[in-house]
Design a protein that fits this description.
Order of helices and strands of chain C: HHHHEEEEEEEEE
Number of helices of chain C: 4
Number of strands of chain C: 9
Shape of chain C: globular
Distance between the termini of chain A: 86 Å
CATH class of chain C: Mainly Beta
Largest sheet of chain A: none
Chains: A mainly alpha (206), B mainly beta (103), C alpha+beta (157), D mainly alpha (278)
Structural class of chain C: alpha+beta
Oligomer: heterotetramer
CATH topology of chain C: Immunoglobulin-like
Strand content of chain C: 35-45%
Shape of chain A: globular
Radius of gyration of chain A: 23 Å
Helix content of chain A: 40-55%
CATH architecture of the largest domain in chain A: Orthogonal Bundle
CATH superfamily of the largest domain in chain A: Cytochrome c-like domain
CATH superfamily of chain C: SoxY domain
Helix content of chain C: 10-25%
Order of helices and strands of chain A: HHEHHHHHH
Distance between the termini of chain C: 53 Å
Number of strands of chain A: 1
Structural class of chain A: mainly alpha
Number of helices of chain A: 8
Chain lengths: 206, 103, 157, 278
């Protein structure tokens, strides 16, 4: 073996190792996506199609827990704002008592859940709402006195309804689910949760 | 057949401290399975701990004792190397006896 | 002792008291091999009956019964640690009762001479409730209570 | 799901009883100590007798007992530190195994050894990874309890020296941030920030070393709410269920990639499990 060939071989090996240890970020994303597809199995109501990301999910995954660049954030918000469907009857505020039940209900959409069973918003998992419930989470901001602090006007009603329908329209890569856009809650359920936040009689506003 | 108990018996001064974990469902008879059928009660009813032929603790339990029960207590008179024997019996007639050496 | 027990039973008249006291009194060292389980005591459903039946200061509330390793809050009611020490001389048995469980009596421990009147175990609690430690000493009954709050938490599924 | 006797006794709050109780009840410390402190004390009180030891004992028996068509024990299984070395093995997993040409976590390595040493079929070996009560005990959970207990106190020391290990870590990192499903959830949704909780449960920030160390070194754990010993494979499986994803397959590459990501981030911390959790 000549010195040149040894050098060549060493170089070649270095390139190989280099490729194996530092593939591009895009390449890793593709690998992750492929690996996910082969690592899950459909069960109950949760099919493998749940691993197919839409534009928002893909862009927010790329942001890796941080706020995406401004132009990306604007794109996400614009796209999602266009999806919001306000009720045809114009009524945005339903029954806060039902809203409270929906806010407490954690079931829905898991493969272990009965597809015909209740689907909730599980709001208390992440937010403080009515002060009577002390077992609330802190992933989202406190919504205690939501309407009382912000006013009960139609614009605030539209914001509350819209935020529940599609949170990404107002804050790109929010951790909050898009309850209306993704068909988690029905129109009536969103009205009821809006009432929990916006009805002056709701315990949230006491 | 139930799994063996996990027994620790250790001498501190003139006192033997006994800690025991038992493998048992301790089913209350109040729970329902996925089909809504009541799961029958199944729990340890009696526990006896003996040392040198003498009972050092005797217990009667209901189904409100937690699953995989734990008991800790102390008695006087044990010596290193002595055996402590623990026996339980459940409401299905299943029994189990295990022993440990005082360390 | 037998006479004492009969007196208590007679004065009380409630079935729950009878069975409860029997449970606390019937276990004796040496009988272990033939140890039986007192079904009636474990079927007791109401503390109110028991308390009414106990009447006249029986059992006596006692500051000499101390809870240890027993939390004020239990994160999960399926496993609530309970530790009880009786500083009452001649303690013969220690029973654990959960006020709001469907069946109140959880466990009875017989304490032979030579065994310390101190033990710890774990019980299930269906909801926030008082835990009672019922101690039998010199044929008399003493009681102490501790309030334990049960939180169920979790993320709904 | 636990269905303890919640609510069954609710109707029995007899007034007579309340009087008696008020007289008897010792003054509670609840008023002085916060709920968080109370729960911390509860967790502390649980440490004294951890039923995980029952799984450890059963696992040790299973490790040493000749089993399977080959009537062989697992004592010659190489968990990464040489055939039969259990002490400290878990603290350096997952790792690349040349014989399998794959990065493996403890559970997948155990399946491998059951197949190669005991002659068990792959399907049989991975059939029951998560137990449920006396009738469906999981041998994997018991073996994991035993093997992990032999790393208690050992500092986490996971290597990325092999290119496949480094690759697994990077993919695990990506998967951690992958958002999908009807709720747009990903691991990062609940585990990407400090001092957050879901309902009353504290959530470790797994993007930071301290969070990853605290979380990873305390699994497996005896889960009080289930009365079962649960492994890290179970932890991942159930997180994805709650994320509304399809089911994460036991021993899948994605499960190993995430385990690699978290185990490596926990490097330097002393392993402290099997633990006991709510």
């Amino acid at each position: 073996m000549t010195a040149r060939r040894i050098l060549f071989a060493a170089l070649f090996a270095a390139i190989l190792v280099g490729c194996a240890t530092s593939p591009s970020d895009d390449r890793i994303s593709v690998d992750a996506s492929t690996m996910l597809k082969s690592s899950f199995k459909a069960r109950g109501q949760a099919g493998l199609d749940r691993l197919d990301q839409d534009d928002t999910q893909r862009l927010c995954s790329e942001a890796a827990g941080k706020t995406p660049p401004r132009e990306v954030a604007e794109r996400i918000e614009k796209q999602n704002l266009a999806t919001i469907q306000y009720p045809a009857d114009g009524k945005l505020v339903g029954d806060w008592k039902n809203g409270e039940k929906i806010a407490q209900e954690g079931r829905g959409k898991q493969y272990s859940d009965d597809p015909a069973g209740p689907v909730g918003g599980n709001c208390y998992a992440c937010h403080q709402l009515a002060p009577q419930e002390v077992a609330y989470g802190t992933i989202g901001p406190s919504l205690y006195r939501f309407g009382k602090l912000r006013g009960y006007g139609i614009e605030m009603q539209r914001y509350a309804y819209g935020k529940i329908f599609n949170s990404e329209a107002f804050a790109a890569c929010s951790t909050m689910p898009r309850f209306g856009h993704n068909g988690i809650l029905s129109e009536q359920q969103i009205k009821d949760v809006t009432a929990l936040l916006m009805d002056p009689a709701s315990p949230v506003n006491q | 057949m139930a799994d063996p108990m996990k027994i620790r018996a250790s001498l501190v001064g003139d006192t033997t401290e006994v800690k025991v974990l038992m493998s048992h469902e301790m089913e209350t008879g109040q729970r329902k399975d996925a089909q809504g059928v009541v799961i029958p009660a199944w729990f340890i009813q009696t526990v006896t701990v003996t040392h040198g032929g003498k009972t050092v603790l005797a217990a009667q339990w209901g189904p409100a004792v937690s699953k995989n029960p734990f008991v800790s207590f102390k008695f006087k008179g044990g010596a290193k190397g002595d055996k402590v024997t623990i026996a339980w019996a459940d409401n299905r007639g299943d029994k189990r006896t295990d022993e440990a050496t005082i360390a | 002792m037998d006479r004492k027990r009969r007196q208590v039973l007679k004065s009380g008249g409630g079935v729950t008291l009878l069975t409860l006291v029997a449970a606390a009194g019937w276990l004796r060292p040496g009988d272990a091999a033939a140890q039986s389980w007192n079904k009636a005591a474990f079927d007791t459903k109401s503390m109110a009956d028991t308390m009414k039946a106990l009447g006249g200061g029986e059992p006596v509330q006692s500051k000499d019964i101390v809870f240890f390793q027993t939390p004020d809050i239990a994160e999960n009611g399926a496993v609530v640690p309970v530790g009880i020490i009786s500083n009452i001389p001649n303690t013969e048995s220690i029973a654990v009762l959960i006020e709001k469980n469907p069946n109140m009596l959880a466990a009875v421990f017989d304490i032979p001479p030579g065994t310390e009147p101190s033990l710890s175990t774990r019980v299930k609690m269906g909801q926030s409730s008082n835990i009672y430690a019922l101690v039998k000493a010199d044929g008399k009954y003493f009681v102490a209570a501790k309030d334990v709050k049960v939180t169920l938490g979790g993320c709904g599924g | 799901m636990m269905h303890i006797d919640r609510g069954l006794g609710a109707g029995r709050r007899a007034a007579a009883l309340a009087i008696a109780v008020a007289l008897v009840a010792a003054p509670t410390a609840l008023a002085q100590s916060s709920a968080a402190e109370g729960i911390a004390k509860y967790r502390e009180a649980l440490q004294d007798g951890n039923p995980a030891e029952l799984w450890e004992a059963r696992g040790e028996g299973l490790w040493k007992e000749p089993r399977g068509p080959a009537k062989a024990s697992l004592e010659q299984c190489d968990l990464g530190l040489g055939a039969g070395v259990v002490k400290g093995a878990y603290a350096q997993l997952p790792k690349y195994f040349a014989d399998a040409d794959r990065v493996m976590d403890l559970e997948t390595r155990l399946v491998w050894c059951m197949v190669k040493l005991q002659g068990t079929s792959d399907a049989d070996a991975r059939k029951n990874p998560f137990g449920n009560g006396t009738d469906r005990k999981s041998n994997i959970e018991a073996l994991v309890a035993y093997i992990t207990s032999e790393s208690r106190g050992v500092k986490m020391n996971v290597s990325l020296a092999h290119p496949k290990e480094a690759q697994m870590y990077k993919v695990g990192d990506k998967i951690f941030y992958f958002r999908g499903g009807p709720h747009d959830f990903g691991c990062v949704t609940c585990h990407g920030a400090d001092n957050q909780r879901i309902r009353l449960q504290d959530l470790p920030n797994l993007t930071k070393v301290e969070g990853a160390q605290k979380a990873y070194t305390t699994w497996p754990a005896y889960r009080v709410s289930q009365g079962e010993l649960r492994t890290f494979q179970w932890r991942l499986n159930d997180c994805f269920r709650q994320q509304r994803f399809p089911e994460l397959e036991f021993g899948s590459d994605a499960s190993i990639a995430l385990t690699m990501f978290l185990a490596k981030n926990a490097n330097g911390a002393a392993f402290d499990a099997p633990a006991i959790k709510r």
